[in-house]
Design goal:
single chain; 196 residues; alpha/beta; globular
Length: 196
C-alpha cells in the first residue's frame, strides 16, 4: 500500500486524508521529521501560506522536505501548498520551498468573501472537474517543462512540473477524487521506477 504523507500543521488536512484513504492508500499526517520517513509522496494542503511557512520553519521541516524532493518523491500542493512549492512568489524576495518551476501570485481571485466554485476542463479528462476557489493563487509564469493541466479565465490553476503537481483550488473540498487520483498515479509510477 502506498504511503502518502500530508503536511498536518494547518489547513484542510482531514479532507485530504479522506480522499487519500478513499483511493486505497495510507495517509500519514506529517508533523515532524520522523513522519517523513518511508512515505512515497507528500501533499502540501491549503490553509494560510504565511502561517504554514512559519510552522514548517519552526518544526525544521524545510530542508527534510527539500531532501525528499531531491530524492524524487512526488509532491502535490493545493492552494497555499502551491505557494509553498513555487520557485518564485510575486512580491516576495525569497520562495518558501522553491521546488516547482512556476511563478505564483497570491490571492488572485479575491478575498475569502469572493470564494466560488466552477467546473473546469482538465487535460486528459473527458468530463469537467469541480473546483473550489478560496483566496486562491494562480500561476503567472510556467517554466519551459511545466505541463499546464487546467486554466480558469485564462489563468493557470493546475500544472505539473515533473514530480510536482500544483493546484490553485481545493479539490479536497469536493467529492471528486480525480485530481488526487492523478497525483497518486504519479506516486505509483515513481515508486515502480525507483524499485527497478
Amino acid at each position: 500500500m502506498l504511503k502518502i504523507g500530508i503536511l498536518a500543521l494547518q489547513g484542510a488536512v482531514r479532507e485530504h486524508i479522506r480522499q487519500i484513504e478513499e483511493l486505497d492508500c495510507e495517509a500519514i499526517p506529517v508533523k515532524s521529521i520522523d513522519d517523513l520517513k518511508e512515505i512515497n509522496g507528500l501533499v502540501l494542503p491549503g490553509g494560510e501560506s504565511t502561517t504554514i511557512s512559519k510552522l514548517v520553519d519552526r518544526y525544521d521541516l524545510i530542508e527534510p522536505i527539500r531532501d525528499l524532493a531531491d530524492n524524487g518523491i512526488p509532491m502535490f500542493g493545493t492552494c497555499a501548498g502551491l505557494i509553498l512549492l513555487a520557485k518564485k512568489v510575486v512580491g516576495y524576495d525569497e520562495p518558501h520551498l522553491g521546488l516547482m518551476d512556476v511563478v505564483v501570485e497570491r490571492n488572485s481571485f479575491g478575498r475569502q468573501v469572493d470564494s466560488f466554485e466552477v467546473e473546469l476542463s482538465m487535460l486528459g479528462e473527458e468530463e469537467d472537474i469541480p473546483a473550489v476557489f478560496i483566496r486562491a493563487p494562480h500561476i503567472v509564469i510556467a517554466g519551459e517543462n511545466v505541463e499546464v493541466l487546467a486554466k480558469h479565465e485564462e489563468r493557470i490553476v493546475l500544472a505539473r512540473d515533473g514530480q510536482f503537481l500544483g493546484c490553485s483550488f481545493h479539490p479536497e473540498l469536493t467529492e471528486d477524487t480525480r485530481i488526487m487520483k492523478y497525483f497518486i498515479n504519479m506516486v505509483r509510477e515513481n515508486t515502480i521506477i525507483s524499485s527497478q
